[in-house]
Structures are given as C-alpha cells and as structure tokens.
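Just curious: can you write whichever protein you like plus the matching structure tokens?

***
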Amino acid sequence: AEMGVFETYHEFTEKYADVVEEFMAIPDLEGSKKFLLQNANIILQENCSNYLMLATLEDEMNGYRDKMKLVARQAQIVSNIAELAKTMKTHPGNVIMPFFQRMQERAHLEEFLRGVKDFQEKIIKRAVTKKAEMDAQREQEELEVTAGGGKRGGC
C-alpha cells in the first residue's frame, strides 16, 4: 500500500481506530509482528504513533495502568521500527522483520524493555501534570461561572 498520502489525524481515527485498537491489545511480540506485517501501512503512520501516545495517557489518567503498560509497549514497537528505518535509510515497512529478529537477542530485547519502562514512567508523570492542569482549568471555569452568575442574577 502507498504511504505517500497521509490523512488528517481526524480522518485517520475515523477510518482506522478499530485496527489500531486491535494492535493495542496484542499481548505478545510474535502476534504484534504478524499484525504489523499485515497492517504496516496503517500502524506505521505518524497518525498511529500519535493515537497510541494519546491512548497511553488516557488509560493512565483513567486508572487503567495495566492497559497503559501494554499500549506503551506497542507504541514503543512502532517508534523503534521508525527509528530503525531512519538509521537504515529505508521505509519502516522494510524493517519490521529486522526489528523482530533483533528482539530475539537478549541484549536488544533488554534495551527495548528498558525503553518501554522509561516511556511508561514518562506517561505516569505526564498524567499527573495533565490532571493538575485540567483541575486548575475546571476551577478557573467554575470561578468564572460563579462570578458571571452573580452579575446576571442582580439585574
């Protein structure tokens, strides 16, 4: 499939959310490899990386840590493939097999899992910050409503 034409993020989610959600739920590397080989043109798009990033944050903010951890790993598979493709100066679809072959080597696998752990920790921190930002925003809005309500009632 041709990857030159990118949809907007909105179009991407409308068309492919189901496919991405399916990828997000794959528990093992072997299953992920098979799924990627079949759906590379969808999963290896930048839009998909953004979708995965938002999903991890949403899961963490909603208290689904185990789900977040799995999605974070899937997101790291995608970003590692993208990085490897840049290094090898080729299309990401061409490095799916090389990436998973490297995962058979203990050193590569451990390095990958360290990256996943770092990413998970970043998401946990980001979720805390974002929650605080949202609470502050909500308080601000409530203040404005209360202040505004008083004025309208007094005319």
About this structure: DSSP finds six helices and no strands in the chain. The helical segments are 9-24, 29-43, 46-61, 65-87, 96-102, 106-153. The two ends are 64 Å apart (CA to CA).
